[in-house]
Amino acid sequence: DISLKHEFKKYKVHTMKGEEFLKTYNSKIDYIYLDAFDFDHGNHSMKRKKSYEQNMNCTITNELCHMMHLECCKNIINKMTDNGYICIDDILNKDSTEGKGVLAVPFLIKNNFNQLEYYPNCIIFSKI
User: Fold this and answer.
1) 8 in helix, strand or coil?
2) Cα dist. 111→35, 41, 60, 74, 93 in Å?
3) Rounded CA gap, 62 and 70, in Å?
4) Counts of helices then strands in the chain (DSSP H, E)
5) Residue 118 CB neighbour total at 10 angstroms
6) pTM of the model
7) What is the pLDDT of residue 6?
C-alpha cells in the first residue's frame, strides 16, 4: 500500500540489539516496552533456536535474557522523563523471580523506580 509506505518514511528505523541502541540513544524516553531476548521456557521451536544461533551467535538462555534486560535498564534509567514508564514483558510472577525481569526488576527498584502495576506476564514501573 503506497500510503502505508509514505507513513513509515517519517520514522527512523534502527536494526540493532536494543541494549546497544539504548546505550547510544541520547534523547529522553517517555515510555519503553522491553520484550526482546527470550527466556528459556523449554518450548521454543527449532526455528526460533536456529534464529538466535544465526542472527545473534548465541543460544536462548535465561542468563543471557536476564543480562540483556538489565543492560537495557542500566542504559535508560537516566534517560527517562519524570513521568516516564518502563514496561517489561514476560514477567511470570509478581515477585519477578521468573521470566525476563529477574535482574532488571531489582535494579529498577534499587534505582528509585516504583512498581505501578503487575498484570499477568508484564510489569510497569515509573520513575519516583
Assistant:
1) helix
2) 21, 29, 28, 10, 21
3) 12
4) 5, 4
5) 14
6) 0.86
7) 66
